[in-house]
Amino acid sequence: MQIAPKGEQARNNTALPKARTLIEALPWLERFHGKTVVIKFGGNAMVDDELKAAFAQDVVFLRYAGLRPVIVHGGGPQISAQLEKLGLESHFTAGLRVTTPETMEVVRMVLAGQVQRELVGLLNGHGPFAVGMTGEDAHTMTAVKRYAEVDGEQVDIGLVGDIVKVDTGAVKALLDDGRIPVISSVARGLDGHVYNVNADTAAAAMAVALQAEMLVVLTDVEGLFVNWPESDDVISQLTAGELEKLLPTLASGMLPKMEGCLHAVREGVGTARVLDGRVQHSLLLEIFTDAGIGTMVVPDPDPNEAIIEGGLA
Ligand SMILES: Nc1ncnc2c1ncn2[C@@H]1O[C@H](COP(=O)(O)OP(=O)(O)O)[C@@H](O)[C@H]1O
Ligand SMILES: CC(=O)N[C@@H](CCC(=O)OP(=O)(O)O)C(=O)O
């Protein structure tokens, strides 16, 4: 027999708000159960150990809640740091790293050997879930050479790739086995070379191929700012059409992210969201609370529905 300590009743009352928070998650748990969510974890969002640990908790929480999370990760700052250690400079053209064969070796080493290993280790601290791979494995991502566009001109930036094909076989097998795939943004070229792929682009391609419920991009700002850098007002929601009009005004960094979100939503992904990876548990807050944070891109409204609405009005 156990006797409840004095004051237990009062403690129960303070526990009620916690229960309410859990109940707030119920409609989202119902809605997203069994659904695939592709999460892009950016290098700038992974500079802090506490944040990385919280991210791992969130992803494992999603897995236990019955979702099917897939991680596609970057590691731009980590690649640049390693290049610097080796006495090599980083050059970017239109937001893409100029990638010589020497640079490519470092990109592959840092993404697959360092960043991915660390994420896999953090996730597996919670159970036997994470399996690391790169886009090269099992021909998961196939790329062709990508040129950067500067003032309407095509510029050769070396071994940078654009994804032309995604084979989801290995990823789906892992998901069906209850695992969490952690994929580095490196792809095998049609020509047999290994290509460096922007991680936002890779995540969007994976979300489309899996026809995911959601693409979530974690980054180092609160979301898409209305008029950056003049304003830091965050756009909480916009349609694909509205985003398309905004794209030409976006600066590098945000451009591949929003291009990826647009591509995803236009090609059948339910929604695409850009979140502040500097906020602990931003992933859980976005998916399981009514408030939501960051920027959400939704598909264009169905024109037929608009006509019916208009007709009834
Ligand atoms: N409209 C915008 N809204 C928010 N950030 C923007 C915008 N345009 C450009 N940026 C820049 O994009 C950056 C995010 O891209 P990036 O640094 O490549 O992140 P990550 O490493 O997460 O991929 C922001 O820190 C900001 O400097
Ligand atoms: C072609 C290209 O630029 N590739 C990126 C790949 C990593 C990446 O995208 O990392 P973040 O998401 O942290 O920016 C790079 O080499 O930095």
UniProtKB/TrEMBL annotation:
Main localization (coarse): cytoplasm
Chain ranges of the Aspartate/glutamate/uridylate kinase domain: 35-275
Enzyme Commission numbers on file: 2.7.2.8
Binding site for substrate: G75, G76, R97, N196
Residues under site feature: Transition state stabilizer: K40, K257
Pathway, per record: Amino-acid biosynthesis; L-arginine biosynthesis; N(2)-acetyl-L-ornithine from L-glutamate: step 2/4
Keywords assigned by UniProt, alphabetized: Amino-acid biosynthesis, Arginine biosynthesis, ATP-binding, Cytoplasm, Kinase, Nucleotide-binding, Transferase
GO terms of molecular function: acetylglutamate kinase activity
Family: Belongs to the acetylglutamate kinase family. ArgB subfamily.
Function: Catalyzes the ATP-dependent phosphorylation of N-acetyl-L-glutamate.
Annotated protein name in UniProt: Acetylglutamate kinase
Organism: Streptacidiphilus monticola
Lineage: Bacteria, Bacillati, Actinomycetota, Actinomycetes, Kitasatosporales
